[in-house]
Amino acid sequence: MRELRVALIGCGAIGTSVLELLKGDAALQVAAIVVPAEGVAAARQVAPGVRVASSVPAEGIDLVVETAGHAAIEQHVLPALARGTPCVVASVGALSAKGLAEKLEAAAIAGRTQVQLIPGAVGAIDALAAARIGGLDSVRYTGRKPPQAWKGTPAEQGRDLGALSAETVIFEGSAREAALLYPKNANVAATVSLAGLGLDKTLVRLIADPATTENVHTVEAEGAFGSFALTMRNKPLAANPKTSALTVYSAVRALRNRVAALAI
Prior knowledge:
Layout: E1 4-9, H1 13-22, E2 28-34, H2 40-46, E3 51-53, E4 63-66, H3 70-82, E5 87-89, H4 100-110, E6 115-117, H5 125-134, E7 136-145, E8 168-174, H6 175-181, H7 187-195, E9 203-208, E10 215-223, E11 226-234, E12 236-237, E13 240-244, H8 245-259
Parallel strand pairs: 1-2, 1-4, 2-3, 4-5, 5-6, 7-9
Antiparallel strand pairs: 7-10, 8-9, 10-11, 12-13
């Protein structure tokens, strides 16, 4: 199998970590990094010798990997899909925006290709998606993170996150509401909902907890298959406490599965 040429959209905390893990991988070549004009110099420092562009090259790319958020999906992923280039999307929370998931699917159909949404920071997505086939009755997601992980979000309204002495529920509602209000923290909620009952029927609870230093994700599901409860305690990404390190590993796994002779 020949080397897979990858265009990486975004060179922030996740994108930079993906680049580092792919160094020396003989089967995967990051052929281009796509960033806004103001990010070009920084991207060239991170990956000298790699082409840096403001859009995905129309030729010489076998796969596009998005790690940059909603705007990047609209600007770069949709056109790439439409011209037939498969894409991997990490910013699944962006799909809470009305109609975006449908746009992705339509673009992939038009280009006769596929867009893959990675599980990111949470496990059991395969079990949840399989359970949906038999019929799901309820899906609940609880996200628990240290207070500093919620800075710069609506959680700061009416409370001092740095002064919390006990766990505090900062949100309860649907996955759609959670992903819209906490887009950088609620990728998991959106992923769980898209695999299961959908954005409006998945229940979400978000907690700021000064007693934890980890990002804790709990998924509970019930249906015709039976029931399960999964709790994951993820270390935050050093460069961005809002993101679990597992998100980076999930993206790299998706890439390596594209070239592996045996994939799981």
